[in-house]
Amino acid sequence: MSCKAIEYNCISDSFNKSYLPKIGDVALFEVLEIGKHKTVQLSNKRNATILQGDKILGSFANRYATAQFEGYLPDQPTEILDILGAGGAIGIVKSKNAAFHDIEPTKLKLLGFALDDNQQIINTIYNQTQRKVFRGEVPNQAKVILSLGSTMDSGKTTSAAYLARGIKNNNKKVAFIKLTGTCYSKDKDLVYDCGADISIDFMDAGFPSTFLINLSDLKDLYQTLLDQLIPHNPDYIVMEIADGLVQKETEELIRDGDFMKTVSDIVLSCGDSLAVFWGVDFLNKLGKKPTVIAGRFTMSPLLIDEVSKRVPIPVKTLEGLMDKSIIQLFS
């Protein structure tokens, strides 16, 4: 096939039947059948509608999403694959939430891998960014506030966004990092829109996904993203780790002493009162008491009352997180 849209590379099918893809490998696919994903996010962040017969570039990846798809890289050269996420993560779906019982993943056919000028398969990871070895150094000695959730969709991104607004309301420089997850810019864009001076995530180091990345590599990714913040001199860094407390990468990070030494405070977001009680107990046993409790449960005054009577930690609604007074809890 002839050279395609991305600069300096061509598409070749010579690897299709012999090569086992790695996370971050870029390939061209034909859309065979539209399922759950009817759009893919372009490099300019526009969500483009896709139709049968369209050709798209994507990156091979794994995905952990309890409310959506669980998917993995193929374990052998495979022609028919699935869209795992709207950001262009491609793999094979293993399981899906029951909400999608009657909805299949969007099916793709592998046409060929993207090659660079040296005829090597292009891989996005650290393709445009230098990898930094973890040093535990935080730029400008900023306070790092870690936004954790009891589960996926517990409200941790929204909590992080409104907290960033509250910090910004104090005329402080605030940065946002989403350290783990699956490629899609919605979360970091939300925090930026809410007031963060800079908002970055794992995609800024070329990772289409961080699911099943080992701890050492995750810590290097963290340092790489921290170093990208050096020119911005942030006073505070709000950082989100995706999914729930017992998700593999999340639990490994919060159990790692060197990683947690960089963290000043924790905001725990939960969906209901029982999740709060368990989550606080889980973190307390690790010696990591949350500074603030927030999340979807705060939509209910009854649940706020239940939690406030039993847990001696401030509970904050979205309005409370973005109130100027919030910064007093992190001083």
Main pleated-sheet profile: 6 strands, parallel
CATH topology-level name of the largest domain: Rossmann fold
Task: Give the CATH architecture of the largest domain.
Answer: 3-Layer(aba) Sandwich
Biggest sheet strand order reads 12-11-13-10-14-15
The overall average pLDDT, rounded, is: 95
Distance between the termini: 59 Å
Helix content: 10-25%
The count of strands amounts to 15
Total domains: 2
CA-atom Rg in angstroms: 21 Å
Question: How many separate helices?
Answer: 8
- Beta-strand portion reads 25-35%
The helix/strand class is alpha/beta
The ordered string of helix (H) and strand (E) elements is: EEEEEEEEEEHEHEHEHHEHEHH
Which superfamily, in CATH terms, is the homologous superfamily of the largest domain?
A: P-loop containing nucleotide triphosphate hydrolases
How would you describe the overall organization of this protein?
The protein is built from 8 helices and 15 strands. It has about 325 residues and is an alpha/beta fold. Helix 1 runs parallel beside helix 2. Strands 12-11-13-10-14-15 form a 6-stranded parallel sheet, with helices on both faces. The chain starts with 9 loop residues before the first strand and ends in a 9-residue tail after the last helix. The chain has 2 domains: about 10-115, no CATH class; about 140-330, P-loop containing nucleotide triphosphate hydrolases (Rossmann fold). The relative contact order is 0.14. Helix 2 (about 185-195) links the parallel strand 11 (about 175-180) and strand 12.
